Amino acid sequence: MTSVAPTDAPVLDGDPFSMETLADPIPFDTAVREAGPMVWLAKYGVWATGRHAVVDGIFRSWGTFISSAGTGMTNTKRETTWRRPSVILDQDPPDHTATRAIMTRLLSPRTMRKLKEQFAAEADRLVESLVARGEFDAALDLAEAFPLTVLPDAVGMAREGRQHLLPYSNVNFQAMGPRNRLWEEAVEQAGDAAEYVAWQMRREALTDDGLGAEIYAAADAGEITEEQAGLLVRTFLSAGVDTTVFGIGFALHSLMQNPDQWALLRAQPSLAKHVFEETLRHTPPSPIIGRTTKTATEVDGIQLEADQKVLLFLAAANRDPARWPDPDRFDITRQASGHMAFGAGIHACVGQLIARLEAECVLSAVARKVGSMELVGEPQIKYSNWLRGLTSLPVRVTAA
Ligand code: HEM
Fold first, then answer.
1. pTM of the model
2. Predicted confidence (pLDDT) per residue in 306-358, tens digit
3. What is the dihedral of CA 31, 34, 37, 43, to 10 degrees?
4. Domain 11-399: which CATH number of 1.10.630.10, 1.10.1670.10, 3.30.565.10, 3.30.40.230
5. Which ligand 1 atom sits closest to the C-alpha of 91?
6. Whose CA is nearest to atom 11 of ligand 1?
7. Distance from the CA of 131 to the center of ligand 1, in angstroms?
């Protein structure tokens, strides 16, 4: 990566991955957005943008802003990362096309209709048991416990070994940032997680009635290779767990910080969907994603050379006042669609329907079964290069 600042472009000297910024990221997000349509991050020699219209435009210009050089900080055409690139996320068409088509078909509205009953029953059961306890950690006992049960069950994963899922996913997301202490600690803490995932993504380790088996059926039909099928199963294990965990945790936290919004949800539990959508806009678990310029190009009058990393600040774009009035306000009645938490264009999150279904089931159960909900301790944040979330959210609840 070059660290020479290009001429005529706004430059920021701060570090989006320092512990201080991660503890309180909004000021840096705001600085990126306000500095200009494209800003040079001098510390890393990469471009960044936090404007909604620019982020959206780059997502849609996939021929120029490519994913096949990696969607994290590492240019995978020049350096290797800790694991093999994803067969969907880190690909451009035509390589992206077949794997994407399979995942889109698999995670369709039809599949969601099949999963809904099971997810809703599990959410009701879990929330009832927590209400009976009265005090619990909503980040661990609810936001984490729910996706860690329903998603692996839906994929058809074995019961044993699931404790490796979050450590694996942690390495995956830390490794998308710079090689700093967070990344190194994540690798140390992961233990046997990579071996577990290598085993769990195999055909023999999956039940024959889950989403994983359907991916292998696509291999049997000749749509993808056996190896690609394994790597597609891996995407569930890396992209599908803590993103949703953190999204649900932020939704619960925002409701407690905004009693008027919590009252609205309690009065009308069907607003659960809106709560999650507004949470994704206001406090997305996925704040940044990267692209690389395939050729020299220009964005709003700023010249970018070929082979440059561009970080899309999704969290900043989601609070762009040019797109949403009063963007810092958490308002479950606003039209939050168009937020960038799931990306946009050909790589827009293929798991978004299942993430929404999970969150809707949990938030609807909370709305129907919880009478009051208050914080009884300081929430703890997750320090991550590539995700935002809570690791602790101590609450006291009463029954509805
Ligand atoms: C709230 C939860 C989630 C958030 C915030 C989230 C966020 C994202 C974002 C921002 C992207 C776009 C990446 C890019 O443009 O390069 C993405 C893509 C993707 N997500 Fe999610 N995700 C979530 C849940 C899930 C779940 C549950 C799954 C799996 C079932 C999943 C699987 C994927 C995959 C496979 C891609 C790559 C799609 C492609 O490249 O075509 N995600 N996600």
1. 0.97
2. 999 999 999 999 999 999 999 999 999 999 999 999 999 999 999 999 999 99
3. -20
4. 1.10.630.10
5. 40
6. 349
7. 31
